[in-house]
Amino acid sequence: MEINGSVALVTGANRGLGRHFAQELLNRGASTVYATARDPRSVDLPGVRVLRLDITDPGSVAEAADVAKDVNLLVNNAGVATGTNLLDGDLARIRLEMETHYFGTLQVVRAFAPVLGRNGGGAILNVLSVLSWANYDGANAYSAAKAAQWSLTNGIRLELAGQGTTVTGVHLGAADTDMMAGFDVPKLDPAFVAATALDGVAAGRPEVLVDDASRAAKAALTAV
């Protein structure tokens, strides 16, 4: 995937990793960067094209795909962390995690896959997590949703291969963003995460493990 000259769309681009993805795409010469958010007024990054997009709203997703017909690079970054466990947590909050990470990502992919196909194939980047492969007491709803999103990522990679669309999943531990502000753990520079992930997209890699935490979690899947 040639990022210089590409037309990219980033979900959840108003803050955190999404904002850094949008900035890094601009730095690498993307011709257009659609920076999307549920509230377009919250996007303050110069040089982007702001677009309203709520990934949990099918109508909003369809409208965005109708506007951004020139996209050839899709970054599925939008997410939510409710800090909810499975046994005693509020079911509405657990459903929100799944509606956002799994069904929301799926809705966006289904809407933009034909767009990418018409524009030569392009690429999709899904922002996943070390918790796709591990669990954390206090955030097990997030782990379940990210595990589902990982499986989604692997599934669409197979289904989109025929139209020449590459699909990259990026896994990381904690990045220094608002979402992780309440956690006292080592945190990655979000600019580094965005740059490393886009290096993987440019190289056509199916998976990017940003840090030691994600590499260890992946390795543990095959441990006896």
Describe the structure.
This protein is α/β, with parallel strands linked by helices and 224 residues long. 42% of the residues lie in helices and 14% in strands. It contains six helices and seven strands, in the order E-H-E-E-H-E-H-E-H-E-H-E-H. It has helices spanning 16-27, 58-67, 91-118, 140-160, 190-203, 212-220; strands at 7-10, 32-37, 49-52, 73-76, 123-127, 166-171, 207-209. Strand 4 (73-76), helix 3 and strand 5 (123-127) form a beta-alpha-beta unit. The longest helix has 28 residues, at 91-118.
Chart the SSEs and their pairings.
Layout: E1 7-10, H1 16-27, E2 32-37, E3 49-52, H2 58-67, E4 73-76, H3 91-118, E5 123-127, H4 140-160, E6 166-171, H5 190-203, E7 207-209, H6 212-220
Helix pairs in contact: 1-5, 2-3, 3-4
